[in-house]
């Protein structure tokens, strides 16, 4: 199966690599060959009509379907001009889809994001302005620092997803650990269910199918006469053409059931999200109250211990002077030991609630630094 050739655009290889390194989210074409073709040229003329330095490389389709189909890649003058189906060791796995055939077009598409963009209009306006890489990095990191100072490290949430499997997502996990951020599942949830709800209705659109067949058949009374002409065997040719029209009328309320189920799933996700948010708020409030109570108790037990120590010291001085008895000394010593145990227990509870609050606010990594 052949792919289609494409035209050059204005995205440079340097910009492409910078976009990937800066996590700009641009979708790239990466082959498993030892050479990586450039991503653009200033010329707009067709690559099919220029150059004769064709090279063939073999790689793997890295689309998000995770099929991993083999690719045969034609490179001309440093640019990918065509992708075709690569031969597998077992022919049963030889395959390619339109997404695999369109790698070159998507790689050099003029609509591909090539540099940082800032939304200059209102939300949803679609108005964007180009900014430099330094501006983008400064703006993003400043926001991160602001959110961390206001709400803790865990307020930075990482949700990693991409349209290509060639991106190494582990680097984002490493960054998350360094920042002490939180993580969440990929952004499917309610949005995916909403699309699914819309797709339910597509199955009720009338469909028209066209089928055709052409075949030879034969019969014989003796096996060795099968491929020989003669009176004992005859070959017949047959062919057919068919058209079928499908118009859904009644499905036993299946569509209504699927729509209701999708709507219920969406509501369940919203409720789970709200419950999680409230649960985290409750845990934070409880941890804050426990910390304040344990802090007051810690100070109180510390004062009691210092007071009991002073009383014991005075009693010992009186005992040395012959005024106090040994019984009084032992009683004050026992009270001092009890106050000391209460002080240590309060100190422990105070430290535990402090760690819990640091954990809930994503700042527990500050103890390691």
Mean pLDDT rating: 75
Strand order across the largest sheet: 1-2-3
Order of helices and strands: HEEEHHEEHEHEHEEHH
Biggest sheet features: 3 strands, antiparallel
Strand content: 15-25%
Count of discrete alpha- or pi-helical segments spanning 4 or more residues: 8
Rough outline: elongated
End-to-end distance, in Å? 57 Å
Structural class, by secondary structure, is alpha+beta
Question: What features would you describe in this structure?
Answer:
The protein has 369 residues and is α+β, with helices and mostly antiparallel strands. It has helices at residues 13-21, 98-101, 103-107, 133-151, 170-179, 189-200, 254-320, 326-360, and strands spanning 54-60, 70-76, 79-85, 117-119, 128-130, 157-158, 182-183, 207-220, 233-246. A three-stranded antiparallel beta sheet has the order 1-2-3, with no helix packed on it. It has a two-stranded antiparallel ribbon with strand order 4-5. It has a two-stranded parallel ribbon with strand order 6-7. The chain is elongated and about 140 Å long. The relative contact order is 0.08. Residues 6-50 have low confidence and may be disordered.
Lay out the secondary structure.
Layout: H1 13-21, E1 54-60, E2 70-76, E3 79-85, H2 98-101, H3 103-107, E4 117-119, E5 128-130, H4 133-151, E6 157-158, H5 170-179, E7 182-183, H6 189-200, E8 207-220, E9 233-246, H7 254-320, H8 326-360
Parallel strand pairs: 6-7
Antiparallel strand pairs: 1-2, 2-3, 4-5, 8-9
Helix pairs in contact: 6-7, 7-8
